[in-house]
Amino acid sequence: MEAGIVGLPNVGKSTLFNALTCSEAAQSANYPFCTIEPNEGIVSVPDSRLETITKYIPPQKVIPAFLKLVDIAGIVEGASKGEGLGNKFLSHIREVDAILQVVRCFEDEDVTHVTGDVNPISDIEVVETELLLADLETLSNALPKSERAARGGDKEAQLRVDVIKRCSAHANEEHPLRTLDFTEDEAKIVRGLGLMTAKPILYIANVDEDDVSGESVHVQKVREHVARVGAEVVPVCAKFEAELAELDEADRAEMLESVGLEEPALGSVARATYRTLGLQSYFTAGEKEVRAWTVPVGATAPQGAGVIHTDFEKGFIRCEIYSLDDLIEYKTEKDIRSAGKLRVEGKEYVMQDGDICHFLFN
After folding, report:
1. CA dist., res. 360 & res. 352, Å (int)
2. What values do phi and psi take at 16, rounded to 5?
3. Strands 2-6 and 98-105: what pairing?
4. Which residues of 269-292 are buried (b: 16+ CB within 10 A; e: fewer)?
5. Of 327 and 22, the one with more pLDDT
6. What is the pTM assigned to this prediction?
């Protein structure tokens, strides 16, 4: 699963991407479209539970969960009609699983805003409008072929027609498609069409260096908007985070303390992205390694095992599971087992965030 970082030009997308992925690339120049091809990077998901597990089960190495991020070129008004990088920008968004929209919430005379004024709600609306217009065109192009197939009695094609018409009506009312509810079969059709406003979205408010907690009027406006659409917002000072990423551990801790942060805000971004993608972690723990594994919310035990190796899913027998609270209370797996707290789950078990697992397979 991967998330694409989008936004208007000069909002700090590439600076944020470089900080998130600890990229050594220079900060982007102050002009639109400096990111032509989408850069890709991997970012770890900070999880304090890993550190807790290692206190009781010391491993040779610790492996966190990871996310794939894509830095996509800046969008401008008219992109759906080919303005700016137009179709190239849109095609890159169609390929990702979730959207991270960076919204400029800082004032800086040296960094030109593409519209002249810093207005985060206007920026959000420009991007959303362009994605809606592109989705409407996709739906319009897909409808005739689906209608022809439906006339031949194809039930799947008829469902496709129904979904297209429903989505078109919703988008014409200027509502993003992620605000619609779909059945599993309908959601599959929507994914197949590559509809961008159906993708989950996370807003990242890029703030001033003196507002790292995001208390400015700009950020409050974003929070109000996000609350109405049921999404999430994370305030980040991309410039500060980029500087922080270049420091050694001691200097980093001192710099964080100076602004009242306990950890880099990028940790909050990674965890929020994880949630936006509908992902969760389970753990395996032993002397060799303590590791976080990524599964979708709702994954069954065999599907969770399959993340480690496809043979684990095919030959799944059962899963032995305990919780972090059990480990803290009983200290060792042996004592957890003796206390009867080690659960044995079968093929129908739905994985829970934070499960510590041993899989048995044929």
Report:
1. 18
2. -65, -45
3. parallel
4. bbbbbbebbebbbbbbbeeeebbb
5. 327
6. 0.85
